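Example record

Each entry pairs one chain with its bound ligand, adenosine-5'-triphosphate.
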Amino acid sequence: MTNLFEQAKPIIKTLKQNGYEAYFVGGSVRDFVMGRDINDIDIATSAFPDEVKAVFERTIDIGIQHGTVLVLSGEDKYEITTFRTESTYSDFRRPDSVQFVRSLLEDLKRRDFTMNALAMDENGKVYDYFEGKIDIENKVIRAVGIPSLRFNEDALRMLRAIRFQSQLGFQIEEGTLLAIKQNAENLNYISQERITIEFEKILMGKHSNLALQSLVESGLASCLQELSNFHNSLTRVNFDTLETIEEKWAKLFIELKIDPKLFLVKWKCSSEKICKVKSLVNCHYDVLNSGWTNRILFNYGLETSLSVEKLKLGRDSNRAYIEGLFQKLNLKSKQDLAIRGQDLIGWTNQKGGPWLGEMIEKITDEVLNGYLVNDKEKIKEWVLSNMI
Ligand code: ATP
Ligand code: MG
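Structure tokens for the complex follow.
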């Protein structure tokens, strides 16, 4: 077993010593079976939330209504969730109620895909009631139970199937795919926040090209509000060689000629992310207009410029070229300019106003283009002779 499981063993043992069942469940067991790196582990137990809290000294309620308690142990924290079943779903997204149960099998039945419905005990024994291991071996994503019913309970699962395809490169099993096609429209009931999380994971997956193909073919793409008009072009976009989510968004907006801001606001992205994506897209168009100028490199900075170079060429080969241009800049940021607005006021005896900013921009241009040395005295001479 990997370190994370080893570290968490005492938690499982403590629950067992107190008469409860406890297992590792979900994605971490799937990734372990596949030999993939494991990021975070989830533990499921027959103990009810109050019972979990009684067993451990330090706990935090993080989702007690869903049965999840956070257990703190030394530096580590573990999410422990009570086995549960979910009752009828009337709104395609949330169960009408959640019942805590004592049976592992009941808990695994409510999970989305067979590969995610695995449990493992502290000795490494895997519990696989739905042939998840065979599906993993065959690289297949298959709904647990009757796919249509499962997607009717929670329509987000359809998008999750595609995101697992993007992360793992698996095929979606025929019956599962058919049910997605039949139920795609129910995606409209899902909140934008949940859709955005899964869609970003699709973009970030190693197999995003394959997943985007499925997204379109399954009909899900035409149910993604702002993307619905573009679903035919979506598969054209190649995200290979791009790394950050901002680069991937930018590529999408450039290829599909979409305004990033309006889109990302609707898709509930953070303003920080919107800002970054906007500047990638703007920088891209500036370079398209005029090639790499000193002004563009200065305005957008090295990091954005390197990303844009990747967007343009679809490969990273000119990194050294951009770095070279940036190194040669006489100014690398606004702070590098040898004068401030206050200097201009002092030299000219004029009040502050919009002219200050304009003058600083002019001086910046002169310095960037090599017509003026970035030296306080030299700039003063230039200003005084240009003001008259
Ligand atoms: P990742 O490695 O990306 O975190 P994961 O499989 O752990 O993948 P999570 O979203 O963290 O995915 O969910 C943890 C587990 O909870 C899943 O493996 C699955 O068993 C179950 N699960 C999560 N969301 C759903 C859902 N909408 N419907 C049914 N089961 C779900
Ligand atoms: Mg997880």
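The radius of gyration is 28 Å.
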